[in-house]
Specification:
Helix content is 55%, strand content 13%. With 312 residues, the protein is α+β, with helices and mostly antiparallel strands. It has three domains: 94 residues; 54 residues; 115 residues, Fic/DOC protein, Fido domain (Four Helix Bundle (Hemerythrin (Met), subunit A), Up-down Bundle). A five-stranded antiparallel β-sheet has the order 1-2-3-5-4. Helix 8 crosses helix 11, helix 9 runs antiparallel to helix 10 and helix 10 runs antiparallel to helix 11. The longest helix is centred in the middle third of the chain and has 46 residues. The relative contact order is 0.07. InterPro entries: Fido, Fido-like_dom_sf, Type_II_TA_Toxin, Virulence_RhuM-like. Keywords: Coiled coil. This is Fic/DOC family protein.
């Protein structure tokens, strides 16, 4: 994306704002947000300050300075003006309760998608060529593995690893190319009620205690932590679900329980269990071949990665 600027116009045609696109997001200054949402700059500034004070967003990732030519009196001057990304624009729009926030988000998302598709098309031919070369190399390795000359167990083991994880290497290549796209998702997803989740965890706890793998402290709630997490997953932004798909709800359910520590003990195990339970409730725990979408090793690794990740 070569830093294009497009004009956003409200449906009534009364408001026009120049929108800058860069780094796969959009950027507006405080003055532009004031124009977009029909508020004064002071109000916008106060909301931005509150967003940072409450820890909702971080300054280093949401602010960017752009050099703008401004007319000041009879002079044209260049000044560095702070601009804010789409996350901040959406947050401010939500706080000022402006319906323009919904329309602008949809418009900006559509434009960003167009730019990303164009960039993807330019790189797709190169990626496909690289993928073909990698697949050919893997085929050669697999053929070599059957050679009578390759007798060392270690050599055969290496070949087996490479051939078995060919798709993994292709995914990693796509990531390096910046072309790893999100998999398709299924909209919706019914979350358990607080009581259902508590009952499920209580039964899980009893099984663990019988096996000597937990104590009475396991799963004891700290205040209403579990209820708060389930409530957050049901929240909306501009009238639309904040977590619209089964996949988004499942991922954030695991993340929030592991990172927010709603229980005195057993947060990682509780988070992993409720993650699997949620997928089961929504018919997504098994694929078309009746195989689990994530095995026990993968779930353990994912849970530990979440636990060790930097929440910032």
């Amino acid at each position: 994306m070569q830093n294009p600027i497009q004009i956003y116009q409200t449906q009534d045609g009364q408001t026009q704002v120049e929108v800058r696109f860069e780094n796969e997001t959009v950027w507006l200054s405080q003055a532009q947000m004031a124009t977009l949402f029909g508020k004064d700059v002071r109000t916008i500034n106060e909301h931005i300050k509150n967003v940072f004070d409450e820890g909702e967003l971080e300054q280093h990732s949401t602010i960017r300075n752009f050099r703008i030519v401004r007319q000041e009196g009879k002079r044209q001057v260049n000044r560095e003006i702070e601009h804010y990304d789409l996350d901040m624009i959406i947050s401010v729009g939500y706080r000022v309760k402006s319906q323009q926030g919904v329309a602008f988000r949809r418009w900006a998302t559509a434009r960003l998608k167009e730019f990303l598709i164009k960039g993807y098309s330019l790189n797709q031919k190169r990626l496909q060529q690289n993928a073909v070369e990698l697949e050919q190399a893997l085929a050669l390795i697999q053929k070599t593995a059957q050679s009578s000359e390759l007798t060392l167990a270690s050599g055969r083991g290496l070949v087996d690893i490479v051939s078995r994880y060919a798709q993994t290497f292709l995914w990693l290549q796509q990531y390096d190319e910046g072309l790893l796209s999100e998999p398709p998702t299924q909209q919706g997803g019914a979350l358990p009620t607080v009581q259902e989740a508590r009952t499920t965890l209580r039964n899980f706890k009893q099984q663990l205690i019988k096996r000597g793998e937990a104590s009475e402290l396991f799963g004891l709630e700290r205040q209403e932590g579990l209820a708060a997490i389930l409530g957050n997953l049901e929240q909306t932004v501009f009238g639309e679900p904040a977590y619209p798909s089964i996949e988004a709800k499942a991922a954030h359910l695991l993340y929030f329980i592991v990172k927010n520590h709603p229980f005195s003990d057993g947060n990682k195990r509780s988070g992993a269990f409720l993650f699997v339970d949620f997928l089961h409730r929504n018919g997504r725990l098994f694929n078309e071949d009746n195989q689990p979408v994530i095995n026990d090793t993968g779930l353990a690794a994912l849970t530990l990665l979440v636990a060790e990740s930097d929440p910032k």
